[in-house]
Amino acid sequence: MNIFHKVAFQGLKKGRTRTFVTIIGVALSAAMITAVATFAVSLQSYVINGAIAKYGDWHVAFTDSDASFADSQAEDGRAANVASFENIGYAALEDGINPDKPYLFIAGFDNKTFDTLPVSLITGRLPENSKEILVPAHVASNGGVRISVGDTLTLSVGTRQNKGGTLNQHDAYVPGKETLDVETERTYTVTGICQRPAFEEIAAPGYTLITKADAEASSHGFSTFVTLKNPAEVHAYAEEVAEGHDYFLNDDVLRFMGFSDDKLFNALLYAAGGILVALVMLGSVFLIYNSFHISLNERTHQFGILMSAGATEKQLRNSVLFEGFCIGAVGIPLGMLIGIPSIWLVLSLVSKNFTNILYDNVQLTLKVSIPALVAAAVISLATILISAYIPARKAAAMPVMECIRQTNEVKVEARAIKTSRFMRRVYGLEGMLAIKNFKRNKRRYRSIVLSLTLSVVLFVSAGAFRTYLGQIGERSSVEIDGDILFYTKDMKENDVLRLYDDLERADGITKSNYQALATYSCEVDKSSLTREFWDSCQETSGMDETGETADLKMDVQFIEDGIYKEFVDSLDLPAVNGSGQDGNVIVVGKKTASEDLFKSRSADLKLAAPSGGQSKTIHATFADTYPLDPPPVEPSEVKGYTFMAVVPYSMKSQFDMLSAPEKLGLTFWSDNPGKSVEQMKAIIDGTGVTAGYTLYNVHQLLEENRNILFVVNLFTAIFVIMMTLIAVANVFNTIATNIKLRRRELAMLRSVGMSDRDFNKMMRFECALYGYRTMLIGLPAAGILSWLIYVGLDAGGGQVRYTFPWSSIGASILGVFLVIFITMLYAVSKIKKENIIDALRDDII
Question: Could you tell me if 204 and 62 are in contact, meaning their C-beta atoms sit under 8 angstroms apart?
Answer without folding.
Answer: no
